[in-house]
Amino acid sequence: MDFLRPASWEEALAAKAEHPTAVPIAGGTDVMVEINFDHRRPEYLLDLNRIVDLYEWETGAESVRLGASVPYTKIMENLRAELPGLALASHTVASPQIRNRGGVGGNLGTASPAGDAHPALLAAGAEVEVESAARGTRLIPVDEFYTGVKRNALRPDELIRAVHVKKADGPQQFSKVGTRNAMVIAVCAFGLALHPATRTVRTGIGSAAPTPVRAGAAEDFLNAALEEGGFWDTGKIITPSVAKRFADLCSAACNPIDDVRGTANYRRHAVGVMARRTLTWTWESYRGARPAPEGAA
Amino acid sequence: MRVNFTVNGRPQEADDVWEGESLLYVLRERLGLPGSKNACEQGECGSCTVRLDGVPVCACLVAAGQVEGRDVVTVEGLAQFARQRAAGGCATGACGTPLDEARRWQAEGTGPGTGEDAGLSPVQQAFIDAGAVQCGFCTPGLLVASDELLERNPNPSDADIREALSGNLCRCTGYEKIMDAVRLAAARRSEEV
Ligand SMILES: Cc1cc2nc3c(=O)[nH]c(=O)nc-3n(C[C@H](O)[C@H](O)[C@H](O)COP(=O)(O)OP(=O)(O)OC[C@H]3O[C@@H](n4cnc5c(N)ncnc54)[C@H](O)[C@@H]3O)c2cc1C
Ligand code: FES
Ligand code: FES
Predict the structure, then answer these.
(1) Residue ranges in chain B modelled with pLDDT below 70
(2) Distance linking the first and last C-alpha atoms of chain A
(3) Is residue B136 within 6 Å of ligand 2 at its C-beta?
(4) Fewer beta carbons within 10 angstroms: which end of chain B, N or C?
């Protein structure tokens, strides 16, 4: 095994081009487990810890450009206002020790259907910025990034530079089912974001299909129902039958498996429950935050 | 490969390090510092917790090559680290814990609860006084994590303590005495101030 220690982003891209089989290592919280248990013996480890750009983030007008290695702890501490869904999801990852090292770049690299960042990224709207020495930068919509179980759209010579996550324009929620509050891989997870600016609702489902997915049909139904009923203007309580239909469609978007953490049926059911709850929570804050109608006390 | 880094305030060099090796292995097997424990090697138990550039991490999940040029504090250096912090830094320029001392490190004095002269950090003393140590396997990781919590947050709520220690498993105590120990260390500190 060789240990490559590029000091800059350019050096890292050059190293990845020269050794396409090199395994990047950022926080190491996925990679080191595999090496410790001899599940993986890469020819080259490509250390990303010295590349300071990957630990920085910039807040723009529309989105946050989040460096691939920014640890979850920093997201929780610094980006709660801009990226509430991702901050909530970050807080549910493992333990402080893991959150101090692991980040979204590694979560995307692993592309596990159970990765907690994914539902939040899908719901908020995000693009993955990847780069290669040969072809430069491309932006991959996060919906297209996950290509199969633990597979992603990265080419062998590419590295993840950053994730551009849309700044929240309304309330966001993240919900996760597990046996306890810390150190738990999701049985299933759900992210939901209200986007009052475009009058849309977006979702993300974790651990209930081969890849993280959005509940497209559920979103379409809800967007139409909210528009037709004038809900965005009046801020009235969402009709229970609408919430129920939305939850059912979210369940239907799942394609889960039975495994040690839970059965497929349980996952479908739990996703429906989380969909209804996160919709209620976010809608309540949306109603609460709206300016009071004129003349009202 | 060779790895140069700072351990407990002193520069160290580890030779013949395999590229896939963890920081935990380097500390225990190459530098002879077995204080950081190895129980799971997968980040689940926290018994290998050390500070890497001040940040608590699982040493079993840091690749050895990643610590080149960086600063590590282990449980063996914790007492000295806490003394230096209390003194507001290193005045003499000869601070930290040398490797041979760290290897032999143990509390001075005899028996548990011997008090001020034992050379323990406040958190270590509190763990003994509160009866938070049974088999002791989880203790080094818990000490490093608790010490960092109190450095950051001198007056933690119970929820803060549970959160900060949520990555450290203990199979013996049932955690109540560990909670007591951290509360005790915080209370003693606020009395001093
Ligand atoms: C005890 C424990 C509990 C955990 N609990 C959770 C949990 O609750 N939720 C959760 O989502 N995850 C969990 N994980 C998994 C892990 O912490 C996350 O997936 C984390 O986001 C990985 O980030 P990292 O920087 O440590 O990745 P690394 O291990 O460094 O890398 C992970 C993968 O991404 C690739 N990679 C990293 N950076 C880049 C880059 N810039 N460009 C291209 N490829 C890259 C690597 O080659 C590797 O394939 C847990 C892990 C452990 C050990
Ligand atoms: S040995 Fe590192 S967390 Fe268990
Ligand atoms: S005292 Fe035995 S594991 Fe904690």
Answers:
(1) 92-94, 109-117, 193
(2) 70
(3) no
(4) C
Amino acid at B116: E
Identify the structural domains of chain A with CATH numbers, from first to last: 172-289 (3.30.390.50)
Q: Distance between CA atoms of A111 and A45, rounded to whole angstroms?
A: 19
SS3 category, A201 = strand
Q: How many CB atoms lie within 10 A of CB B102?
A: 24
Contacting A residues, span 41-80, partner chain B, CB-CB under 8 Å: 41-42, 45, 47, 49
DSSP character at residue A64: E
Among all bound ligands, the one having the nearest atom to the CA of B171 is 3
Say whether residue A96 is in contact with chain B using an 8 A CB cutoff.
yes
From A33, A49, A96, residue closest to B61, measured CB to CB: A33
**pTM score of the predicted model:** 0.95
Q: Residue B54, class by beta-carbon neighbours within 10 Å (0-12 exposed, 13-18 middle, 19+ buried)?
A: exposed
From the CB of residue A257, how many other CB atoms can be counted at a distance below 10 Å? 15
* A3 CB within 8 Å of a chain B CB: yes
CA dist B5 and B3 (Å) reads: 6
A242 phi, psi to nearest 5 deg: -70, -45
pLDDT value of residue A271 = 98
